[in-house]
Design goal:
Layout: H1 2-7, H2 21-24, H3 27-35, H4 41-52, E1 55-57, E2 60-62, H5 75-85
Antiparallel strand pairs: 1-2
């Protein structure tokens, strides 16, 4: 990417921070996107368990219906897969 910015003619550069992204990833969509590339049902099941693992606050467990655990080792990878496949609005 730096090559294009430094060496080629560029009209616009857009940097976006998607507020609350990791809290709002739809589990059904991310699993459907992963099924496009991953045929192993065991791996898909492990990822599904990771997503549904929930979190604990003050000793109480809370279910997770959407989002990926922040700080989780697989969250950035799932975010990249999700953003690759999710439809983007035209600007």
């Amino acid at each position: 990417m730096n090559y294009y910015i430094e060496k080629k003619s560029v009209n616009n550069v857009v940097d976006v921070d998607i507020k609350g992204f990791f809290d709002n990833v739809d589990h059904r969509w991310i699993i459907d996107f992963l099924k496009l590339r991953i045929a192993d049902p065991n791996l898909l099941r492990i990822i599904g368990r990771f997503l549904k693992g929930g979190h604990m606050e003050e000793g109480k467990k809370y279910k997770t219906d959407n989002g990926t655990p922040q700080g989780g080792v697989i969250s950035p990878v799932l975010a990249n897969v999700y953003l690759h496949y999710v439809p983007r609005p035209m600007v």
